Amino acid sequence: MVSGFSRFITAVMLPSRTTPDLLAGMWQLISTQLLAVRRRLIWDNEAGIGRGNHFAAGVSAFTGMLATRIVQLKPFDPESKGIVERANQYLETSFLPGRSFTSPDDSNRQLADWLPTANARTVRRLGGKPIEFIGQDRAAMLPVPPLAPLVGFTARVRLPRDYCVRVASNDYSVDPTAIGRLVDVTATLSQVTVRLDERVVACHDRVWSTAKTITDPTHVVQAGRLHRAFQHPPTPTDTDLLRDLADYDTGFGVNFDVQGLDEEAV
Fold first, then answer.
1. What is the dihedral of CA 134, 1, 112, 98, to 10 degrees?
2. For residue range 12-63, what is the model confidence (pLDDT) as tens digits?
3. Which DSSP symbol is given to 95?
4. Is pLDDT of 217 > 60?
5. Could you tell me which residue, 105 or 53, shows the higher pLDDT?
6. Between vectors from CA 23 to CA 19 and to CA 24, what angle results, nearest 5°?
7. Which residues 6+ apart lie within 8 Å of 88 measured at CB?
8. Is 65 helix (H, G, I), strand (E, B) or coil?
9. Share of the chain above pLDDT 90, in %
10. Which of 28, 6, 2, 1 lies closest to 140 in space, CA to CA?
11. How many Cα atoms occupy the beta-carbon half-sphere of 122 within 13 Å?
12. What domains can be seen in the chain, in order of their start residue?
């Protein structure tokens, strides 16, 4: 995201171009890097945001929470967001060459370390540096809302017998004791969490590749224990089948007083 006046660059690498990730990425840049809300967000016809002035699910709620609006450009009109295109080219020529990355987190850490340098460069069009003009941009923007909008992936599913939930085409294991019950799945840009009521039954680092199965070894051990218990149930003993009949009287609230009865009634 690039501010139209100051050319101040904010950036983060995302796992995908789906709506939950795009909204989470915008919120992260607004709340942690820009520290203000633009009155307009200029987008091309990105499918994750919407096309033809028809927004994807969740986009209108996001912009309403921030009191901003999204302006979609016409198709095949890159000149209208040339500021962003030039920033992308600058990233490709000044940030990426000569670097290596061990993980997405490492890439984002290096990008965060590099952005202050990028925003301290001199822009000929401005006759100055973006960091020197961002204050004027922020003065014309809206404050960040005190409550964060709901962003990221959320779902409620019934945990299947393979004790895995799917997020962005990847399967993540869950504590198998929750099989058959409804669990709440949330995914941020970096983590996948599964809850059963208020209890966390799975927590994984989000994987950015596709068609992978991410398994917690403790879940596998627990699944094996449950499987063995199902295959070999305990054998009932004679004592398990014996019960004092008075327990039923107590359970149903029946109280027989035989002391006051004569011998014939007894």
1. -120
2. 999 999 999 999 999 999 999 999 999 999 998 889 999 877 899 999 999 9
3. I
4. yes
5. 105
6. 115
7. none
8. helix
9. 73
10. 6
11. 3
12. 19-139 (3.30.420.10), 153-231 (no CATH)
Residues with Cβ within 8 Å of 77's Cβ and at least 6 positions away in sequence, in order, are: 44
Count CA within 13 A, CB hemisphere, residue 36. Answer: 15
CA contacts within 13 A on the Cβ side of 248: 4
CA 95 – CA 78 distance, rounded (Å) = 22
Ramachandran angles phi, psi of 180, nearest 5°:
85, -5
**CB of 22 within 8 A of CB of 136?**
no
Most confidently modeled of 42-51, 73-82, 248-257?
42-51
- pLDDT for 265 equals 47
Tokens representing residue 23 in the block: 């909204």
Partners of 191 in the beta sheet? 205
Angle at 14 between CA 213 and CA 115, to 5 degrees: 140
pLDDT tens-place string over residues 119-175 = 999 998 889 999 999 999 999 999 999 999 999 999 999 999 999 999 999 999 999
Contacts of residue 219, defined as CB under 8 A and 6 or more positions apart, other chains included, come to 163, 173, 174, 175, 176, 202
**Cα separations (Å) of 225 from 103, 219, 230?**
34, 10, 9
Is pTM, for the whole model, over 0.70? yes
Helix H or strand E segment including 157: strand 153-158
